[in-house]
Write a structure and sequence with these properties.
Length: 103
């Protein structure tokens, strides 16, 4: 993907979450943040559905990186991400059907 006028390799397994800001997305990895010009909707279409879920109009999270959640937010490590009212039901169904892992 293009970021800062260069092509940057992003490994899907490293993505913690994605934040949409207008026509850009900020991809948050454990060691860096990459910003690229694409809408969050178009970016979501490029991600595997079984590994990522949209929890808010501005946030997509990696399912296997979720450390805790409530009906109102998702925690990924030290990051707290809100769950939007529109996305809550789908998120809770999706997360409820996920196998629990030690990570």
């Amino acid at each position: 993907m293009k970021a800062d006028r260069k092509v940057v390799k992003v490994v899907l397994e490293e993505i913690l979450y994605v934040e949409g800001v207008k026509d850009y997305v900020k991809i948050v990895l454990p060691t860096q943040k990459i910003t690229t010009k694409i809408s969050i909707g178009n970016f979501l279409k490029e991600l595997p559905e079984d590994r990522f879920v949209q929890v808010h109009k501005s946030f997509i999270v990696a399912k296997n990186k979720i450390s805790a959640y409530t009906a109102h937010d998702v925690e990924i490590g030290e990051f707290e991400i809100p769950i939007g009212r529109v996305y809550k039901e789908v998120f809770l169904k999706t997360i409820g059907s996920m196998p629990v892992s030690g990570k």
